[in-house]
């Protein structure tokens, strides 16, 4: 009895699959004949139904992809060969977004611009090593941005840099005279200690 019921269920499933396949073949042929429709989205279906639809699409010479997160919401999209989806379009469908060619063109243009900037940066050569920022920026809140410029304007360079005029010297003795005086003081101290 149980074997008979199982056989009856299997035959019923087989009949349903055949009917589903015929229905999908009709829908796919309608899709192929529709001239203004580059893609068609089918309702969410089970794994077996999706595999049947993929097979029908492949036999008809179409491209098909499944999208959706969980088994209950997965659906199939069928594309005509001349309107095959780009990788960006497929990524948008995988994320659950609607495909917008204008937005995709804008993203593509931004990527090209970034690539051109990177290429120009490579042509300029490596950046010289140094700190990532200017130390003045760190202390700007303390010294301000105009303080250094004002100080640089008022400061004048010493024309005799490194040479001290004789008039500015306090000690006019020669080195030998200074050394002799230091030795004499040392000898005097030693004599007092003894």
From TrEMBL:
One of its GO terms (molecular function) is nucleic acid binding. This is SPAG7 protein. SUPFAM superfamilies: R3H domain. Residues 18-81 form the R3H domain. It holds the Pfam family R3H. Residues 93-112 have a biased composition (Basic and acidic residues). Coiled coil: none annotated.
């Amino acid at each position: 009895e149980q074997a008979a019921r199982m056989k009856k269920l299997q035959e019923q499933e087989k009949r349903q699959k055949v009917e589903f396949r015929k229905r999908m073949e009709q829908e796919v042929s309608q899709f192929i004949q529709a001239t203004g429709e580059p893609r068609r989205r089918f309702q969410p279906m089970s794994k077996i139904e999706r595999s049947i639809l993929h097979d029908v699409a492949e036999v008809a010479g179409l491209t098909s992809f499944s999208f959706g997160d969980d088994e209950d919401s997965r659906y199939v999209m069928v594309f005509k060969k001349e309107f095959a989806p780009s990788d960006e379009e497929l990524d948008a469908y995988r994320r659950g977004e609607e495909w917008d060619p204008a937005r995709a063109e804008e993203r593509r243009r931004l990527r090209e611009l970034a690539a051109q900037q990177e290429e120009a940066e490579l042509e300029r050569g490596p950046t010289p090593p140094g700190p990532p920022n200017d130390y003045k920026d760190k202390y700007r809140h303390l010294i301000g941005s105009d303080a250094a410029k004002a100080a640089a304007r008022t400061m004048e360079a010493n024309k005799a840099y490194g040479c001290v005029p004789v008039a500015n010297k306090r000690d006019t003795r020669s080195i030998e005279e200074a050394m002799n005086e230091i030795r004499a003081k040392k000898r005097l101290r030693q004599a007092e200690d003894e």
